[in-house]
Amino acid sequence: MALTVDFDAEELWLAEDPANAARPGVLSQARYGAEIAVPQLLDMLDRIGVPATFFVCGRDAERYPSVLESVASRGHEIGHHGHSHRSPHLMAREEETEELVRGLAVLREFTDRVAGYRSPSWDLSPHTLDLLVEHGFSYSSNLMDAVLPYVHAGHDLVEIPVHWTLDDAPHFWFDATSWDRTIRSAREVAEVWGEEATAIHDGGGLVTLTVHPQIIGRPGRLRMLERFLTGVRAYDDGSVWLATCGEVAGATRAAASGARS
Q1: CB 77 within 8 A of CB 244
Q2: Where residue 260 falls among pLDDT bands split at 50, 70, 90?
Q3: Which range has the worst mean pLDDT, 4-13, 199-208, 229-238?
Q4: 184 secondary structure, DSSP code
Q5: Count of domains for the chain
Q6: Residue 87 carries which DSSP code?
Q7: Quick count: other Cβ atoms within 10 Å of Cβ 109?
Q8: Residue 261: what pLDDT?
Q9: What is the CATH number of the domain that holds 149?
Q10: Residue 208 DSSP SS3
């Protein structure tokens, strides 16, 4: 199992609509995620001994350097989540390259190695995998075509597969423009995650859980996440490995290399 945290902060709303820069009420959700939720999340992960991979937008790292310093100092992995939170499929290759390079430069101020990339909204362009190889990434975590991690055919990249079922946003996100989405209870979401994770475990696959500080970091939801992770941690038959995405990618690459030899 890999716990992943998409640290979007203000960039999530600014990429959606630059006019949100003048809406402090909207952006207050980002501040809550960065200033309240992340510190509490880090304390909880320390308490139960679970590693995480934080995928971070470069501009949000610039806004909240102390948050990134805390993530790195506590031993968690930092991955690339775009410089802004704009989707690569909306960009020409040159612009996508610039986004990738600028984000890398910022994140490398906080960590020695940025091995993984997760696109905003898991949305890739036809050029993304090529660019990741060119700029030295070892894995991508964006696609929904598998339950086991795998090495991309034609690219020296491991894919850490994801799915909306194991993401907090589809269950908890509130659409203030239409008011037509019901916010699910933490109990319901724990049940959905538990069913999916148990089935993946039984089949010997990878559970990639994706959370966002401004969403999962509400008090009741954070308590649910701690119970969920503690339950995973409590497996006593040695059949569960809690790891960062970088560790999963390394094991996948080693297994693929062994199979070829």
Answers
A1: yes
A2: low
A3: 229-238
A4: P
A5: 1
A6: -
A7: 13
A8: 58
A9: 3.20.20.370
A10: strand
The two three-digit tokens of residue 47, written as one number: 């308490």
Compute CA distances 9 → 30, 77, 79, 80, 122, whole Å: 4, 18, 15, 14, 17
User: What confidence tens digit (pLDDT) does each residue in 46-72 have?
Assistant: 999 999 999 999 999 999 999 999 999
What CA–CA distance (Å, rounded) separates 72 from 215?
Answer: 22
Q: Which domain holds residue 184?
A: 2-260
Tokens at residue 163, please?
Answer: 């799915």
The answer to whether 146 and 159 are in contact (CB under 8 A) is yes
Separation CA 224–CA 171 (nearest Å): 14
Phi first, then psi: what are they for 177, rounded to 5°? Answer: -85, -30
Q: Measured between alpha carbons, how far is residue 67 from residues 78, 111, 223 in Å?
A: 11, 13, 21
Q: How far apart, in whole angstroms, are the C-alpha atoms of residue 166 and residue 232?
A: 14
Q: What is the model's pLDDT at position 238?
A: 81
Q: How far apart are CA 119 and CA 83, in angstroms?
A: 10
Give residue 1's identity as a one-letter amino acid code.
Answer: M
Give every strand in the sheet of 208-211, ordered side by side.
Answer: 150-151, 158-159, 139-140, 116-117, 77-80, 52-56, 2-7, 208-211
Residues present in the chain in total:
261
Mean per-residue pLDDT, 146-157: 96
Mean pLDDT of the chain: 94
Q: What pTM value is reported for the model?
A: 0.95
**CA within 13 Å, CB half, 112:** 2
User: What are the tokens at 218?
Assistant: 């509400």
Q: Are 59 and 7 in contact (CB under 8 A)?
A: no
- In single-letter form, the type of residue at position 28 comes to S
The 3-state secondary structure of 9-23 reads CHHHHHHHCHHHHHC
Contact call for residues 33 and 21 (beta carbons, < 8 A): no
